[in-house]
TrEMBL record:
Upper classification of the organism: Bacteria, Bacillati, Bacillota, Bacilli, Bacillales
Top-level lineage group: Bacteria
GO MF terms, alphabetically ordered: hydrolase activity
Pfam families referenced in this protein's UniProt entry, alphabetically: Glyco_hydro_130 (PF04041)
Keywords: Glycosyltransferase, Hydrolase, Transferase
PANTHER family from the UniProt entry: GLYCOSIDASE (PTHR34106:SF5)
Family note: Belongs to the glycosyl hydrolase 130 family.
InterPro entries named in the record: Glyco_hydro_beta-prop_sf (IPR023296), Mannoside_phosphorylase (IPR007184)
Matches recorded under CDD domains: GH130_Lin0857-like (cd18612)
Protein name, as recorded: Glycoside hydrolase family 130 protein
Length: 354
C-alpha cells in the first residue's frame, strides 16, 4: 500500500491551539471529524485540556459542573496507593479496570483550510460540555453531510458511562443538540451519508461486559432520532492487527463495489491502526470484504511517540477521485493527513466466502 504522508505533518499540534482559559493547557489536538464547507476543509478538532500544575506529584482531574456551567478540579497525589495512574489518560482505583476520572477534558473546536495542508484554528469552541452526561468531556466527533445538514456524532463521557451524543449544523456556527443517540456503553458511531432503501443507517460499537467484545454493530432509523434493528456486523480476529478492539472510523462512502468503511482497531499491545471493510450497497449489514493488513499503521515518530503512542486514529476522510485523504489523530496528541489510492485500498480487500 502506497501511503503519502503530508510533508507538513503533524498538521496541528497542541502548541498551535490556545487553551480556552488561561489556567488550562492544551495537551491534545486530535481525532477530528472532517467536512467540506464553503470551499474550505473543516476539521472539527477534539481539543484535550487539563489544569496547569507546577507540582509533578499532583494529578488534577477537570470535571464540568452542569449546575454552575464551570469546571471543577479534583486533585490526587501520585504516591497515594489507593489510585492507579499508570495510564496517563485516566485515574483508576487500584486493582480496578474502570476509571473514576479523566486527566483532561475534551471539547470541539474548528480548524479551517483552503488547501487541506495549512489550517487556522477558531478561537472559541464550537461544542463544549453542557449536560450531566458530559461532565468528563465530549470526544471523537464524526461528521456526515445529508442534503444541506451536517450531522455530528460524538462520545459523551460521564460517571454513568460513555454514550453517543448527536448534533447538527448547517453553517458550523449554530448547532442544534439532539440529546444522547445511543446509551452507554457505546461509541465510534458513524452515520451513512444517504438513505438506503428508505432507512438511515449507523455503525456503532457497544462494549459488552458479561460476554462479547468491543466490535462493530449496525442499526437503522426512520427519522435519525430513534435507532433499532441492531445487528452484529464484524468482529475481532485473533493473531491479527485487529485482535484487541475495533470501531468505525470515517463515515462510509459509496464506491461501485460497495460502501467502503475505514475503521480503526487495536491489538493486545494497544497499537492502533486503520483498515478497510466493504459493505453491500443495498444491504450494509452484509460484509463483502475486509483488509487482512492495515492500510495505515503508526510508523513515523509523530505517530509512535506522544501522550499515548503507537496510535493512528481517523474520524474522517475525504474522497477526491482516486485519492482518499485520511485525516487522523496521532499518538492522542496531534493531527496528520495521509493520501491513499482508492483503487489500491479496494485491491487490498480480501473477499469473504459466500
Amino acid at each position: 500500500m502506497n501511503v503519502y504522508r503530508y510533508d507538513e505533518n503533524p498538521l496541528l499540534t497542541p502548541a498551535d491551539v490556545k487553551p480556552h482559559r488561561p489556567d488550562y493547557e492544551v495537551i491534545g489536538v486530535f481525532n477530528a471529524g472532517v467536512a467540506e464547507f464553503n470551499g474550505e476543509i473543516i476539521l472539527l478538532l477534539r481539543v484535550a485540556e487539563r489544569p496547569r500544575s507546577n507540582d509533578p506529584t499532583i494529578v488534577k482531574a477537570p470535571v464540568f459542573n452542569p449546575i454552575t456551567g464551570d469546571l471543577d478540579v479534583v486533585s490526587f497525589h501520585r504516591e497515594d496507593i489507593k489510585y492507579d495512574f499508570s495510564d496517563p489518560r485516566t485515574i483508576r482505583l487500584a486493582g480496578q479496570d474502570s476509571f473514576i476520572y479523566l486527566t483532561s477534558l475534551s471539547y470541539f473546536r474548528i480548524a479551517r483550510s483552503k488547501d487541506g495542508h495549512h489550517f487556522t484554528v477558531d478561537n472559541q469552541p464550537l461544542l463544549f460540555p453542557t449536560t450531566s452526561l458530559e461532565t468528563f468531556g465530549i470526544e471523537d466527533p464524526r461528521i456526515t453531510k445529508i442534503d444541506d445538514t451536517y450531522f455530528i456524532s460524538f462520545s459523551e463521557v460521564s460517571p454513568v458511562g460513555v454514550g453517543t451524543g448527536f448534533a447538527s449544523t448547517k453553517d458550523f456556527i449554530h448547532v442544534d443538540h439532539h440529546g444522547m443517540m445511543l446509551a452507554p456503553e457505546n461509541k465510534d458511531v458513524v452515520l451513512f451519508p444517504e438513505k438506503i432503501n428508505g432507512k438511515y443507517y449507523v455503525l456503532h460499537r457497544p462494549v459488552p461486559k458479561s460476554t462479547g467484545a468491543p466490535e462493530i454493530w449496525i442499526a437503522e432509523s426512520d427519522n435519525l432520532r430513534y435507532w433499532g434493528n441492531h445487528r452484529y456486523l464484524m468482529g475481532l480476529r485473533s493473531d491479527h492487527w485487529d485482535s484487541g478492539r475495533l470501531g468505525a472510523g470515517a463515515a462510509p462512502f459509496r464506491t461501485e463495489q460497495g460502501w467502503l468503511e475505514l475503521y480503526h482497531a487495536a491489538d493486545e499491545n494497544q497499537r492502533y491502526c486503520m483498515g478497510a471493510v466493504l459493505l453491500d450497497l443495498e444491504d450494509p449489514s452484509k460484509v463483502l470484504a475486509r483488509t487482512n493488513q492495515p492500510i495505515l499503521a503508526p510508523e513515523v515518530d509523530y505517530e509512535t511517540d506522544g501522550f499515548f503512542g503507537n496510535v493512528v486514529f481517523s474520524c474522517g476522510a475525504l474522497q477526491d477521485g482516486d485519492t482518499v485523504k485520511i485525516y487522523y489523530g496521532v499518538a492522542d496528541t496531534s493531527m496528520a493527513c495521509a493520501e491513499l489510492s482508492l483503487q489500491e485500498i479496494l485491491a487490498s480487500l480480501t473477499y469473504l466466502e459466500d
